[in-house]
Specification:
Number of helices: 5
Largest sheet: 2 strands, antiparallel
Radius of gyration: 25 Å
Shape: elongated
Strand order of the largest sheet: 1-2
Number of strands: 2
Number of domains: 1
Distance between the termini: 37 Å
């Protein structure tokens, strides 16, 4: 006796019941990776704040304002900003996956009659699993973290530098003033330009030329 044909799947229901258990474990793993990279982001921000406060305390405790130390503080902040932007790109990969599953799998469970959102999210998620890609450019990540956190740290260093110079009456050399002015002018221009940048995708690891997708076969 021939087996009865399998009942057709509901086109609005994206998953079979036997897949839900696997998805629960997969979702938990993606959340864990997202939290791990989030902790790395927070650690970098904490390093930047502690370093800034330490250098500022040294600058205000000395008899003469150490202008070179203010410049070093700005350069250190720029280094932390670059590191945090790189970490944010990886965090955004896992965050985007979890948000896609939350929007297309978990959220429909709470909608009337289990209405599923339309779109090619399954194909996009599968492609991202096969070839993970960044969801934002490096400069876009730098701009985002700068607007969220580091602009206030740079501003704090600038205000502290000006206050220390006014208090002591000792201003840096003209070349230092020009260099600092150019640096902060570039920061201001960067802040304005960053709001207009578009987010672009990019591969996490560049493939070696000629390899193609042989590893999938």
């Amino acid at each position: 006796m021939a087996d009865a044909p399998e009942a057709p799947r509901d086109p609005l229901h994206p998953l079979r019941n036997e897949h839900l258990t696997m998805l629960a474990h997969y979702y938990r793993g993606e959340i864990q990776r997202s939290n791990m990279w989030r902790q790395r982001l927070d650690a970098t921000t904490n390093w930047a704040i502690i370093t800034t406060m330490g250098m500022m305390s040294i600058c205000f405790s000395s008899a003469k304002p150490p202008h070179a130390l203010f410049l070093l503080t700005n350069l250190t902040l720029a280094l932390f900003l670059w590191i945090e932007a790189r970490r944010y790109r990886y965090f955004d990969v896992w965050r985007a996956r979890t948000r896609m599953m939350e929007a297309h799998i978990i959220a429909p469970m709470f909608l009337p009659e289990g209405a599923w959102l339309q779109g090619d999210w399954r194909k996009r998620l599968a492609e991202d699993l096969l070839l993970p890609s960044f969801k934002t450019t490096l400069l876009g990540a730098v701009a985002l973290r700068f607007r969220r956190n580091y602009c206030w740290l740079f501003l704090l260093v600038l205000l502290g530098w000006i206050d220390r110079a006014l208090e002591s009456g000792r201003w840096p050399a003209l070349s230092v003033l020009v260099g600092a002015g150019v640096f902060y002018a570039l920061l201001a221009a960067f802040t304005v330009a960053a709001t207009r940048w578009k987010v672009e995708d990019g591969p996490i690891h560049k493939r070696v030329a000629g390899t193609g997708g042989d590893w999938l076969s």
